Amino acid sequence: MTEKEKLELLEETFETDEGSLNPDMKLEEIEEYDSMTKLSLIVMFDDEFGKKISGDQIKSFVYVKDILELMEK
Amino acid sequence: MESCIRGISIEAVSAAVPDRWLSLADQFGNTSDANRKIIKKFTKNTGVEGRFVSTYNQVNSDWCYAAAKKIIEDKKIDKNSIGVIVYVTQTSDYRKPSTATVLQYRLGIGEDCIAFDVNLGCSGYVCGLNIVGSIMMESKAQYGLLMCGETASRDKIPTDSIEFNTGKLLFGDAGSATLLKKDIMAKNINFMYKTDGSRYNALIAPWGFYRNPYKSADIDITDDIAVFNFSTNEVPVLINELMGKMGCTAEDYDYLVLHQSNKLIMSQIEKKTGFSSDKSIKAIDKFANTSSASIPVSLVEKLALVNNGVSHFMLCGYGIGLSWCAVDCYMNVDNVYPLIKTDEYYEDDY
To answer: Which of A15-29, B62-76, B209-223, B263-277 bottoms out in mean pLDDT, i.e. has the lowest?
Structure first.
């Protein structure tokens, strides 16, 4: 999956506009990154990559790129 | 752990709610654009569009009472033949005694019975079936009555500020009654259940009781992600284990009824257990999460008008404890009563 594809998938998960996310953005500054989005993120990782994401991992995410890095099968 | 109840059937299911239904949009969404957006997203993810909310005087035992009364009257049950009364709730009427004994009195059930409360939440309906069935199997009781539910909205109605924890919008009021009957022809009821108390603090209201008495009792603490991961990973494993033990797959069941926790969780469980979405009965849109009442409420909402006769069910409750319990059972859906709406309540002397 290319970085562009990953970003698109993430934008879909965040329910934010296409092209609105970039890897260096701070997650805490993204309005859509709330408690519900975090649950959608867990579902996305499970469905698309077969990965279980823990609460500690979610807490460790600071930038968008921290999530992108894990988006591998 | 597993158990098998023999010679007992699930004879009737009934549920009652307060007379007042409030949509989230009307209640909270129309005050500003920001609120509207929050509510819209909340509804999309959780499936909750609104919920039944009690008036101040009414509590869960009032809905359970109405639901039980309906079954007893309609089936003309001899009140002296109900030998087991279990009331599952985390919002009992009094600190003491058990509300089950008050319900015995209100329903006019005779003295020849055991009656007690069980403090379980979202796993409570299935655990309760297990408890009532197990006691009946070893006693002379002809009937057993399981009542479940919460006065969930009471402390959780957020103030006008939208700075609320959206988790509080997730809960609605409802009570239920299920009658179990001795029946030598009944098919076995097979349970599989687990408890993990090491995660007791994943969902907890720690204050205002004996250990921590001096802080507000109204605050619930929820570790959303821990509960979500538990529900979507460990719950399907239990259901799959039970199906494996029964030599069944999702195809062999007429209905799956999950505790109505939230839509996102339920669809993940369906996916991981092989149940198609249309076999999975859902009523969270109208009732929100009603804790231990959610399974009977969903049966009532979706099957009261269906006349399919005896159907094969997989039911699964999961949540606070942590506690999770699944059951493979048969039920005659013709004995599922339509939803009761009531604003009646019990007036005690206090």
So the answer is: B209-223
Boundaries of domain holding A51: 3-70
Fold of B2-187: Peroxisomal Thiolase; Chain A, domain 1 (3.40.47)
Task: Please tell me the distance in Å from B226's CA to the nearest CA on chain A.
Answer: 6
Q: Does A52 sit within 8 Å of B225, measured CB to CB?
A: no
Q: For residue A16, give the CATH number of its domain.
A: 1.10.1200.10
Q: Is the pLDDT of residue B160 over 50?
A: no
Total domain count, chain A: 1
Report yes or no: B225 at the A interface, CB cutoff 8 Å: yes
Out of A15, A39, A47, closest to residue B228 by CB: A39
Lookup result for tokens 């079954």: B71
CATH number of B189-335: 3.40.47.10
Res. B167 pLDDT band, cuts 50 70 90: low
- Residues in chain B with CB shorter than 8 Å from the CB of A42 are 225, 228-229, 232
In B, which residues are within 8 Å of A48 by CB distance? none
For residue B245, the surrounding DSSP H or E stretch is: helix B235-246
Q: How confident is the model at residue B165 (pLDDT cuts 50, 70, 90)?
A: low
A42 touches chain B (CB under 8 A): yes
Quick one: three-class SS letters along A4-60?
HHHHHHHHHHHCCCCCCCCCCCEHHHCCCCCHHHHHHHHHHHHHHHCCCCCHHHHHH
ipTM of the complex: 0.93
Interface test with A, best of B229, B262, B270 (most A CBs within 10 A): B229
Q: Is A43 an 8 Å CB contact of chain B?
A: yes
Query: Which pair of structure tokens corresponds to residue B137?
Result: 């199997």
Contact call for A36 and B42, based on CB within 8 A: yes
Cβ-proximal residues to A67 (8 Å cutoff; 6+ apart), any chain: A10, A27, A41, A61
